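sorry for the late reply, my laptop died twice this morning and i had to redo everyting from scratch. anyway the thing you sent over, i finally got around to it. pasting the sequence first so we're on the same page, its 161 residues, then the predicted structure underneath. double check i copied it right bc i was rushing
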Amino acid sequence: MSRPDLDELDHQLISILAQDARVSNRKIASDLGVNEGTVRGRIKRLQQDGLIAFTALTGLKLEKATNIAFVAVQADVSQARRIARDIAHIPLVKSVMIVLGPFNIMATCLYDDLDNLHAMASGQILQMPGVQHVETSLAVRTVKFSNRVVRITDAPMDGAI
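ok and here's the structure:
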């Protein structure tokens, strides 16, 4: 994947939108010293290229479960993609990644109590064919979290794993 060819104006535009995505194109154009059509065109191109997207970010307070856990899964390499897709369908699971290291799948979960988390990790994931080992770690304090950079996809769960 090559880096997109963005100029200084693109970077300034992205920086403004990252601070407040609701700011008007007219205000952005005024701040950057360009016309509104330039801003509108660049935003459209950045969206079409999958470099920016607009969405509402929700806080953990809106979730039923607010505790964070990471579930590391050691799976048969030939079945890792299928297992990752299966894990992604579990309601407690919020993200799933195929990773390098002693484990080849990492899931991030939100849970309300340890019994639910244990049931999911041991009763669902560990029982999947091809799963060899599962380790769960609980987040006790978040020191830094940035939601500014995310993977922009056309449709979640589209089989892209």
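Helices lie at 8-19, 25-32, 36-48, 80-88, 114-125.
thats about all i looked at so far, will dig more tmrw
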